[in-house]
Design brief:
By secondary structure, this protein is an alpha+beta fold. Helices cover 50% and strands 13% of the residues. The chain has twelve helices and four strands. The protein has a four-stranded antiparallel β-sheet.
Length: 230
């Protein structure tokens, strides 16, 4: 199961974003702005920035998460988002003594295939352990480990990138495991920055339509919208 813990973040992230935005048109310092901005002013300014598409001030607030219990399948997808920092558990330096892996529900739901899947994973891990015991370096023995193998990492993203990534990865057409991951990222952000947390949602909510070839049903596709207008 995916575990996400927010371990560090910019103090007063929403107020920091608002102050950064205001400093470009203000004669006073960001420090003074932070002290003077009311919660209502912060909320109003963030809404204005989001509506107008002026998102660079959101880069001044960052969030660092400890992530555990995801597969290498999902970590490979995750690190494609390059406007972030990642430090992942190394299979080169860490010997994996236990068999920890992710099983998709579509496989575990079928007894026959679930059994074959588990047998394969355990067989690969046995071979991995045998190679380690024979003196083969972990960096070479790891080649037999399946992508289902669990991993852990630390991820840091700024608020602008979090909004962008959640637009893609909270889409119900994204793979189930990365959807679960970012649902938990969103929940962690909402604890400390509820106004920002509201903006962590699939892009169809911003667009008003689905830009995929096929919609999950929440919004019509762009093609369907055009058809309705004719």
């Amino acid at each position: 199961m995916v575990h996400v813990t927010l371990i560090s973040y910019t103090p007063h992230p929403e107020r920091t974003i608002a102050a950064a935005a205001r400093v470009s048109t203000s004669s006073i310092s960001a420090t003074e702005l932070i002290e003077k901005l009311t919660p209502e002013a912060v909320d109003s300014l963030l809404t204005q920035l989001l509506t107008s598409g002026h998102l660079s001030p959101f880069e001044h607030a960052s969030f660092t998460f400890a992530i555990e219990g995801i597969s290498r399948v999902t970590s490979h997808q995750l690190v494609r988002h390059r406007m972030a920092s990642y430090t992942q558990q190394s299979q080169r330096y860490v010997s994996l003594k236990e068999v920890n892996y992710i099983t998709p529900a579509t496989i575990s739901a079928k007894t026959e295939w679930g059994g074959k899947y588990h047998d394969m994973v355990h067989a690969a891990h046995r071979l991995y352990r045998e190679m380690l015991n024979a003196g083969i370096p972990a960096e070479d023995a790891r080649y037999v480990l399946p992508q289902a193998t669990e991993t852990r990492l630390v991820m840091t993203m700024n608020a602008r990138e979090l909004i962008h990534v959640c637009e893609l990865r909270l889409c119900l057409r994204a793979q189930w495991e990365i959807v679960e991951l970012f649902e938990k990222v969103k929940a962690e952000v909402e604890r400390v920055a509820p106004r920002l947390g509201v903006e962590l949602k699939p892009k169809c909510y911003r667009l008003g339509y689905c830009d995929e070839a096929q919609s999950c049903g929440i919004f019509p596709t762009a093609k369907e919208v055009v058809g309705e207008r004719r």
